[in-house]
Amino acid sequence: MTKAEQQTCGKGLAENSILPAKLGELIAAMADNLAAHMKTLDLKDMNSMQEYEAYESLVRGQREVAGRLSAIAQEMTGYRDLLMGRHDEKAMTHPRVREAFEKFVQHKQELLALLEQMAERDQQLLEVMHLHIG
Question: Rounded to 5 degrees, what angle do the CA atoms 31, 15, 17 make?
C-alpha cells in the first residue's frame, strides 16, 4: 500500500464529513418546508398567529444548525491531508474507544431506521398532494 493509499485519521474525517453535510441539508430542507407552510397561515386567526411564531422560531434555529453542520462538514473535509500522528496502541484498544464507536454505529443504524419509516410516511403524503394538485 502506498502512502497515498494509506488510511489516515484525516482521510477518515474527510470521508465521514458526508454525515454532517447531509444532516445539514436535511435540516435546511426542513426549515424551507416550514417556511413554505408559514405562507399558508391566515394571520388574522390567533391560532394561526401562534403557529406562525412557533415556525418562525424553529426555522431560525434550524437554519443556524444547518449552517453549523455545513461548516463542520467543510472543516472535516479540509483535514483530508492531515498527517498521521502517533497513536498509543494500548489506548486504542481500550474498551471506551470500542464502546464509543459502537454507540456511533448504533445511532447511525437507529437514524437509518427512523429515516426509512419517515420517508415511507412522507411518500404517502406526497402521493396525496399530487392527487389534489395534479
Answer: 25
Q: How is the chain split into domains, by residue range?
A: 1-85, 87-134
- Whether the CB-CB separation of 122 and 49 falls below 8 Å is answered with no
The pLDDT tens digits of the residues spanning 58-113 come to: 999 999 999 999 999 999 999 999 999 999 999 999 999 999 999 999 999 999 99
Going from the C-alpha of 79 to that of each of 23, 55, 68, 93, 106, the distances in angstroms are 19, 36, 17, 24, 25
Helix then strand then coil, % of the chain, to nearest 5: 80, 0, 20
Residues 39-61 pLDDT 10s:
999 999 999 999 999 999 999 99
Q: Reduced to 3 states, what is the DSSP secondary structure of residue 115?
A: helix
